[in-house]
Write a structure and sequence with these properties.
This protein is an alpha+beta fold. It has 2 domains: 2-116, Alpha-Beta Plaits (2-Layer Sandwich); 151-277, 2,3-Dihydroxybiphenyl 1,2-Dioxygenase, domain 1 (Roll), CATH 3.10.180. The chain is 27% helix and 30% strand. It is built from 7 helices and 14 strands. It is elongated. The two termini are 47 Å apart.
């Protein structure tokens, strides 16, 4: 049988309180046991309801309701999808689970409907469709996530206007459709974009402290260039526009790199690789 194991929400989970390192470690070990035993099919934690919406159906009308939702006891904070031989086996597995909230809470087990549960309503045609859709889903899960078609790098900046002017001097353009007083979308290549976000706005997307890139490194943005000269040209423009030189060019024979530190301290690396050393 398949069953969904539902972790109910608490005031802390609804407030966005992150689990402790110990709980994450213990839960990771528990999930490994579930996977090795062939029990766990899926499992995820959920953001607070303040990040979610509900869609209310009333005849032909559809009304979108923004979170948060007040009745915590009606909300869930996470779930597993398990495959077990029986409800009793699922109960035994759940008894071994670390306390998901490190406080008094309840975790619910709910059996998932199987085609046979629908009796005569499940016609041969519907059963064939069910089997086909399930096979397609399993194939998709086995093949892993779909290859991304675009990449968006998000960086916090202190003065958005000043940063835009800086990158314009390097030759970059911006998508005005995704630009306002809080953010802008810088076009690096056809499918590569950098979102420059005012630091206060950037903080709304992460529960962690935002690193000061002038005193610590949170990421290295590396971009390819078509030649050594192209690397030198872009870095030269950046330095002339006010960027800081943080290292000298690096010539590795098969690869040439150089970079700069932008106005907010983010490090940008540009590199050229000799085509003769790139395997086809």
């Amino acid at each position: 049988m398949r069953c969904m194991v539902i972790v109910k929400a608490t005031k802390d989970s609804e407030a966005g309180t992150m689990p402790s390192e110990k709980l994450l470690t213990d839960m990771g070990k528990y999930n490994e046991e579930l996977v090795k035993a062939g029990v766990m099919l899926a499992g995820e934690g959920l953001h607070p309801s303040s990040r979610g919406v509900r869609v209310r159906f009333s005849g032909p009308r559809r009304t979108v309701i923004d979170g948060p939702f007040t009745e915590t006891k009606e909300l869930i904070a996470g779930f597993w999808l398990w495959q077990t031989k029986s409800l009793e086996e699922a109960i035994e597995w759940l008894k071994r689970c670390p306390n998901p909230h490190e406080e008094d809470c309840e975790v619910e087990i709910r059996p998932v409907f199987e085609p046979a549960d629908f009796g005569e309503a499940m016609t041969p045609e519907l059963r064939e469709q069910e089997d086909r859709l399930r096979a397609a889903t399993e194939k998709q899960l086995a093949s892993g996530p779909a290859a991304p078609k675009q990449i968006f790098v998000n960086l916090p900046v202190r003065d958005l206007r000043r940063s835009v002017e800086f990158f314009k001097k390097l030759g970059y353009t911006f998508n005005q459709q995704f630009t306002d007083e809080n953010a802008t979308c810088m076009i690096v290549a056809e499918n590569i974009f950098v979102m420059l976000l005012v630091e206060k706005y950037f903080k709304t997307f992460t529960p962690k402290a935002v690193a000061d890139a002038k005193s610590s490194t949170e990421a290295l943005v590396a971009l390819s260039a078509e030649s050594r000269q192209a690397v030198d040209n872009i870095v030269g423009k950046a330095l002339a526009a006010g960027a800081r030189r943080y290292k000298e060019p690096q010539d590795h024979g098969f690869m040439y790199t150089w970079g700069f530190e932008d106005l907010d301290g983010h490090i940008w690396e540009y590199l050229w690789m000799d085509p003769a050393h790139v395997q086809k």
